[in-house]
Amino acid sequence: MRIGIDARLWNETGVGRYVRNLVSNLVLINSRNEYVLFIHPSIRKGMNLSNVKCQMSIVDADFPWHSISEQVNFPKVLNMENLDLVHFPYFSVPIFYKRPYIITLHDLIVKNYATGRASTLPYPLYLAKRLGYKAVLSNAVRKSKKIIVPSNAVRDEVLKAFPSINSDKVEVIYEGGFGSNIKNKKFNLPAGKAGIKNIEREYFVRVGNYYPHKNIENLLFAFKMLINDFETRHVKLVLVGKKDFFFKKIEKLVLSLDLKENIIFLEDVDDQELISLYQNSKGVVVPSFMEGFSLTSVEALSVGSIVIASDIPVHREVCEACAIYFNPNDPDEIRKRMEEVFKLTKESRSELIKEGLEQSKKFSWKKMAKETLGIYKSQLNQ
């Protein structure tokens, strides 16, 4: 069977990480399927797929997501490949594509986070674009043969937001963390890495983009209160993430709170560097108002870090009793939980880390790929 995979987001964070791990694990499984990857021409050279055990081909797809060309021209390219099934790992599906497909819906932030703060556009244009997003999302949910979601929390949101769809259509497949080849190793901080070499003392770390739903502002307010205490005034907060449009606002807030000496911004870190940041930190803070799966939490638990997370459904689902929780709307409570982790005894830290390592075994990209292949087979056999 010929299965198409929309891999245009290959080089991105978030969904891109999902696509890379899905494809790299799928091709290791010996199957009769032929996979056709649709990808931007500039990405071809950077793809590193080895030990491929199935037929695979790559088709150029120079169509930006959320664009007119995606809606008008991408379906023509898809139709030329005579595919039995297409997997769109994101909700941005061409409305005019009529053949069978499934989607992965990572979250409903685009639907639920309904303020102009979540856009770089002027508010009227943002509203128009958001209406377009919602139309594309609704079409994808309605016409897809199956909807893969990364958690029960997202499944509940989808069924609530789209009550007309059959609950059997929405399938939970957990995502993964780091590969076992590196997550079981202990890494020191790479002293030569720009930025990392400035981490000389105890620190907390936070990983991800700077979009408003990530709640970085309240984290900074909490951190300001934390370092006002004599015992913790030397502590650093390391913020890892792409310096996107919303970064500028966070940078200004850091300056206004007089936190410049205690904040370290990093981007473009590889997996080994990220693991070292997790492992050598006092704790990994995940303050988000919304998440679909919380990859950061799973990654941190899997390499022996303490997770301090917002008390939202997906964090309770993924971390269970292995995280320290706080109300994301209360900076003082965030501060208290960070201080609590900072003061943990060696024995308490070891016990929490041990529980987290065990919890993280529930999640792997290999398992995710196998379960996704099961979805492909079930749809092709109908």
Structure description:
This protein is an alpha/beta fold. The chain has 2 domains: 2-176 and 365-380, Rossmann fold; 180-360, Glycogen Phosphorylase B (Rossmann fold), CATH 3.40.50.2000. The chain is built from 15 helices and 13 strands. It has helices spanning 15-26, 68-72, 74-80, 109-112, 123-143, 152-161, 180-183, 216-227, 247-256, 271-279, 295-302, 313-319, 331-342, 346-360, 365-380, and strands at 2-6, 34-39, 55-60, 85-88, 101-104, 146-149, 170-172, 203-207, 236-240, 263-266, 283-286, 307-310, 323-326. It has a 7-stranded parallel sheet with strand order 3-2-1-4-5-6-7, with helices on both faces. α11 (295-302) packs across α14 (346-360). The longest helix has 21 residues, at 123-143. It is globular and about 65 Å long. The mean pLDDT is 90.
Distance between the termini: 13 Å
Q: What's the number of extended β-strand segments?
A: 13
* CATH level-3 fold name of the largest domain: Rossmann fold
Broad CATH class of the largest domain: Alpha Beta
Structural class: alpha/beta
Treating each run of at least 4 consecutive H or I residues as one helix, how many helices? 15
Radius of gyration: 21 Å
Provide the domain count. 2
Helix content: 25-40%
**Major sheet size, sense and barrel closure:** 7 strands, parallel
pLDDT averaged residue by residue: 90
> What is the CATH H-level superfamily of the largest domain?
Glycogen Phosphorylase B
Query: What is the name of the CATH architecture of the largest domain?
Result: 3-Layer(aba) Sandwich
Report the order of strands and helices: EHEEHHEEHHEHEHEHEHEHEHEHEHHH
Q: Low-confidence segments, ≥5 residues, pLDDT <50?
A: none
Across the major sheet, the strand order is 3-2-1-4-5-6-7
Strand proportion: 15-25%
Tell me the overall shape: globular
